[in-house]
Structure formats: structure tokens, C-alpha cells
Amino acid sequence: MASSSRREKSVEGMILGCAIGEALAIPRDRMPRRRALKIFGATPIRFQFQPGVGVPAERTHGLLMTIQAMLESRADYRAFGRKLQRRLSWYRISFPIRTLGRSLRPALALTDRLAMPKGLAGDPLIRSVSISLLIQGSQHALPWIEQSTRISLRDSRAEEACLLIAHATQLAQMMDPGETPLSPIDAFAKLEGMTEDNELRQGLERLRGFWKKGLSVGRAAKGMGWGEGIPSDLRAIALIAIYAWLRHPNRFRLAVERTVLLGGECSSAAALVGALSGTTLGKRGIPPEWLKRISLFPHDRHWREDLINRVKDWPHGVEDIQKARSQPSRILGQLLRNASFSLFKLIHLAIRIPSRLVPYR
Description:
Elements: H1 4-25, H2 33-40, H3 58-72, H4 77-93, H5 96-103, H6 124-134, H7 138-152, H8 156-174, H9 184-194, H10 198-212, H11 217-223, H12 234-247, H13 252-260, H14 266-281, H15 288-293, H16 301-311, H17 318-323, H18 331-357
Helix pairs in contact: 1-3, 1-6, 1-13, 1-14, 3-4, 3-6, 4-7, 6-7, 6-8, 7-8, 8-12, 8-14, 9-10, 10-12, 12-13, 12-14, 13-14
């Protein structure tokens, strides 16, 4: 069990790290690596979705909704599933333009890949990070993760990928830089022993070999066959996020930037890397220029501080559970934020049109 002060630092770092990683990657999301480099350039990476301001997308808001639903559940995982479903449903209704656009997309082709859910705030991987931090011990968190994952996907392989991220989050909390940290190579070995999915275990073994050789995040992704972008596969996203975090366990900037530059499903991967690195390093490990420009409107600093204060001791007894009520929802602010986000999303869709018409080399 982590101390209250350590949990407080980890939860704060997780929220801010997730938001920053996602905000940096949004412009390049689902673009081939070389095309994204052609349009947006390489390092240093800046907030380019909304000029001068870091605005995260649905994953960060999904993470906050998960924490809120857990507080509302009174420590009952069955009630948590219902509360989370209700919050996610409302969020989709409050995003009418994008909800309509996604509903009109053709169905996904039948493949063997465990495709990332396309629904708004539908990423079960990032939700597993917050569940793992609040429920101390990955095995205790299992029924909660199952409830969260089944809202997006009913597939045992998805649950295994989410549980792997939950295990990684527990290790990230243990890797406190102020104490004797767990080494990355030991973390790889522990994660291999914790997963029951053969494909995930084999992927971790290959990545551990790449880590021993000192391969960069980009070269490791290429070695896994993801040279032109992270595929839309929950297992691939989970594996590359874990590698980027353990490749640079004490350097938030490098871990996130190298993930963003991969292209493909880089928004989900960068959000995960930011959350894991933030869990390890806390707010102090995040570059100050990114912290100053990140905006989680309508959830301002005071709202987030109150939320963190409520969860740092949850659920350590009946009194804590009863007192830890969820934060008030800011419906009008959320609608305003969603409308503004949709506008900038349309602008970026227009920016991508010329690059699709002109072949790249």
C-alpha cells in the first residue's frame, strides 16, 4: 500500500501526464509517421492542435470520468460499471457532431487485430491506469477493470491488455525516484510473469531484449513491425507505451516525445506513456513549459485538487468511502469545451487534405 502523500503525487502526475501526452499527439494521431513529420516536424514537440494551448481529447476526460464513477460507486464495482456507463453516454451526447460522424463510419473490417474502440472516451487502457491507482493491488482491481473494459469491448484479450497496464501502473507507483527504484529490467521481468496472454508475454520478451541492446523507442517500434505508425491494436499500444516509459523512466519529456513521433495511434500511446511517467515522477517531473500551457477546461486547478484530495485515501475504510463524494459536473463548461474542440478538429482535418492528395516519400 502506498502512502497518502505518494498516492497524491502519483494521481496528480497521472492526470497531468495523460493530458499533456494526449494534447501533444492529437495533431499527428492516426497519421503515418513520415507524413506527420512532413506536416508537423520533429522535436521539439509543441502544442499544435490549438495554438499556444495544450488541449487534451477524450482520453483524459474519460480518465476523470472513471475516477468520478469510482467515487460514486461507494466501492462497489458493479455500481461502478453502471455509473461509468452513464457518464460516458452523457459525454457522447454532449459531443453531437463527432458522435454523428463516428456513427456514420463503416464497420471495422474483420481482422485478427484487437482494434482500438472508436467511441468517444472509449479507450479502456487509459481507464485502467486510474482504476489501478485507486484500487491498491492489481488483483483487487480486476473486477473493476473488467467492468470498465466491457463497456468498450467484450473480448478477453482486451481485458488482458488492460490488466497489463494496471500491473504497469502499480510498478510505476513503486518506482519512486526519491527511494530505491525498481529497475526497468526488473519491471519487464515482473510484467512478463504477471500476464497470462502469450502474445503479450512474447511481446514483452522481445521488448526486454531491445531494452538490453539500448534501442530507442523508434527502433524498438520498427523491430516490432510498427515502423510507419502504431497499429490500432490494444496490445500494440500497451506494449509500446510500456517500452517508452521504461526506456526513459526518469525523463518525462523523452518518453512522451519519442512516442508522439511514432505516428499511427500515437495519441492513445502518448496518453498512456504520460500517465505512467507522471505516476512515477509526479508533477515535478513534467517540463514546466508544458504544465503552464495545458488546459483541462472546465476542470480547473481547484476542481482537480479537490478531486485528488478525495481519492488519495480511497477506499481506506467505511468513513472514507462515505465521505469521498464525486466532484460536481460542469455541464455548460463541458458543452462549450466540446464545441470549441470540434471546431479545431475540423481545421486539422482540412490541414490534412493536401498531404493526402500529394504522395510523400
